[in-house]
């Protein structure tokens, strides 16, 4: 009875251990992924929205009017994050740099989440928090170089302090996959698989981004499409458990990468901010050693290090605490199916069966002679038909679950987008602006068909 827990503990310890190089590679990649995130660079522009237009993430309703989200503060946070990520890449003051990234990034990347619905790159903030409480600068870093010059050589051997952050990353990515698959079955059952649902999901994305329609129209092969839907459910439900075992881990990661490439091709859901972090599953140090042996240059025996085991042990307590909080938060949001949260969320569920139609917003100017002109999306959204535009427009229309169509919101939105640019010029001499809610068919062959319905929601005198 006493030996069994001890054996389990030893096995868990061996499973958790990793060399410092694996954590260092993950540190660099997360930094690079963060730097290429579009919302990181556009957050100061989203800070220009007024509170009347914003839709807060679930749990952050209190933040409106309390947390200042101004362009000046967002710009300051942006430059702080840029400097801290530069320190994080080279590994200078590594833990402090990642703490700054986690705190400033939590604020900065939270601002665009108020624009209508959450965009799911929450994991970058989670990973920054894990790196902030881990010895991520003990390899491939300026910190390691400076310590070596001072005669303090860190151990290169696998240790729990280096592996535990990566294992938490594995578990968090597993949670990201698991709950969307579970909610598909809970909400729609087998209809999510054996119906036209996945076809209609693709049609919706093709309508939102017309350039997405692929040369290979898989929607013309319904059986293949439904088998693909079944594979999605199996992958999402099984990924968490498969990555726990060495023999199935590679299969799970390869399956996930294939899944991401197919969703990118057929639905434009590229999600590089997630799949690039799968470097956490790769034993980079073992691969490097194997490569050196293959080319006939085996690694020389390492000199006797002067590790600081007590320091490494002391780092495990905050690491386990942060990891437990992240897991608990995401499991809670996943179990509740809350996708529009920050910094925790159930990642996109696509759990409801959908029809081949979508709501859309149409804005038109009414001139003095009662002629009208439809306002192009590009005049209201710098990114054109971007996903941010769709989420904001649905929020204004009241199609969002947590927002209602209100004249005050339309007025605040129009005041913001007509302050300058081509819309300001076109509005000269106009007597009113009208906001319509349309329902349109998403079938590609109906692209030029008139809307299924058209409802006037607001008319504002100018």
Structure notes:
This protein folds into 2 domains: 16-336, no CATH class; 357-461, no CATH class. It is 54% helix and 8% strand. It has 18 helices and 4 strands. The chain has helices spanning 3-16, 20-35, 38-46, 71-90, 94-108, 122-132, 142-149, 160-188, 197-208, 222-242, 246-267, 272-275, 284-294, 309-336, 377-380, 387-397, 407-417, 422-426; strands at residues 357-367, 372-374, 430-441, 453-461. It has a 4-stranded antiparallel beta sheet. Strand 1 (357-367) and strand 2 (372-374) form a beta hairpin. Helix 2 (20-35) packs antiparallel against helix 6, helix 5 (94-108) packs antiparallel against helix 6 (122-132) and helix 10 packs antiparallel against helix 11 (246-267). The longest helix has 29 residues, at 160-188. It is globular, with a radius of gyration of 25 Å. It starts with a helix and ends with a strand. Residues 302-308 have low confidence and may be disordered.
Task: List strands and helices in order, with pairings.
Layout: H1 3-16, H2 20-35, H3 38-46, H4 71-90, H5 94-108, H6 122-132, H7 142-149, H8 160-188, H9 197-208, H10 222-242, H11 246-267, H12 272-275, H13 284-294, H14 309-336, E1 357-367, E2 372-374, H15 377-380, H16 387-397, H17 407-417, H18 422-426, E3 430-441, E4 453-461
Antiparallel strand pairs: 1-2, 1-3, 3-4
